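Input sequence (261 aa), recorded before submission:
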Amino acid sequence: MRIFSKKMVGMVKKSIAVATLVTSLSLTGTTAMAADITVTPVQASFLTKANTVVYLTADLNTPTECILPEDFQVIVTGVTNTGFWEIEINNVKFYIVGDSVKTDAVAAEQKPAPAPTTVTVGMKNALKKAKSYISFSGFSRTGLLKQLAYEGFTEAECIYGADNCGADWNAECLEKAKSYISFSGFSRTGLLKQLAYEGFTEAECIYGADNCGANWDAECAEKAQSYLSFSSFSRDGLIKQLTYEGFTQSQIAYGIAAVGY
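Predicted structure, token format:
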């Protein structure tokens, strides 16, 4: 795999054409994706985290093309049903995993687009559908766009519906967080990961996790009990499993004591 140098990143930040830096990428980014992988169009710009792996398709088992350094700006053109961002470099599509970008680093570029001058019938119906979805479940903007696209609305209709439905994305994330902890034990770390998987931004995830009213000790005890309800665990085995779930040592101590260990 090729690694872009810091000098290259600096050149990109100074607006030197990306095409001159990544010409070779356009020669290999032609691998076909599996038929069951779908892409929902979005428009965003993010900065990468350190050592972001670029894949030829939205599948971890497919070849990798290169590794991007931290704070490399990528243009996102879609999100896949497998949890990848679709990015475009030199007019070629590549894919990076969903948590490899700083979703709050360029938030200013993700502000809702202004309402179009002409609102079509499709836009009105997308808006009605968007309001219907957020009335019964917590949705991230990304998740709502994906759902509307699944319903068959065009990209413009999806964006209009999501950006005009009146959703407070922090409140939507909080609703989703409360839903998760109502039926299963989650650590704060585990809940943050789950909310991120749902498409919420880092800031929204933190808001949801920190305001959902969870007692993390009690969540650990609930998770410990759920493990013991379907399988036999040794004390050490249960501790390892709870650690894997993201609970802290003090939470684990509480949890295993609560189930009699």
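Checked by second reader. Residues 121-136 form the longest helix (16 residues).
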